Amino acid sequence: MTNTKVTMEIPASATQVWNLIGGFNALPDWLPYIPTSELSEGGRVRSLANPDGNAIIERLEAFNEKERLYTYSIMKAPFPVTNYLSTIQVFEHSDKNKSIVEWSGSFTPVSVSDEEVIDLFHGIYKDGLEALNKAFNA
Question: How far is it, in rounded angstroms, from Cα 111 to Cα 109?
Answer without folding.
Answer: 7
